[in-house]
Amino acid sequence: NSVRFSRDFVDVPWVCVPEVYRDVSTPRVLTMEFVESFKLTNIAWIEQLGLDKKLLAKHTANAFCRQIIEMGYFHCDPHP
Predict the structure, then answer these.
(1) What integer pLDDT is reported at residue 80 of this predicted model?
(2) CA–CA dist 31, 27 (Å, integer)
(3) Residues 64, 68, 17, CA angle at the centre, nearest 5°?
(4) Which one of 8, 11, 23, 77 is the catalytic residue?
(5) I want to staple 40 with a disulfide (CB 3.0 to 4.6 A). Which of 48, 59, 62, 80 is the partner?
(6) Is the pLDDT of residue 76 over 90?
């Protein structure tokens, strides 16, 4: 799933898909790259970083809509 998701969003610079480490993954354990981030619900941190809240909301909504409407293939629990 992550390979397809990565391919579907390769042209979207604000979407980061962690790399899957297949050599240390199993059918029951998925080992992925750690990507430093924060929750989009942490408004205080977003404001401290000086990020545009409306732009973040727009990018998030666009990513969800692209998955659901354009690709017809989406994570079963889309959340920021």
Answers:
(1) 59
(2) 11
(3) 50
(4) 77
(5) 80
(6) no
Distance of CA 68 to CAs 4, 53, 57, 64, 73, Å? 14, 23, 17, 6, 6
Is 77 catalytic? The answer is: yes
The residue whose two tokens read 């480490």 is: 21
Q: Please provide the DSSP assignment of 43-70 as one string.
A: HHHHHHHT--HHHHHHHHHHHHHIIIII
Are 57 and 46 in contact by the 8 Å Cβ rule? The answer is no
59 closest CA partner among 49, 47, 51, 48: 51
Tallying the residues shown for the chain, one arrives at: 80
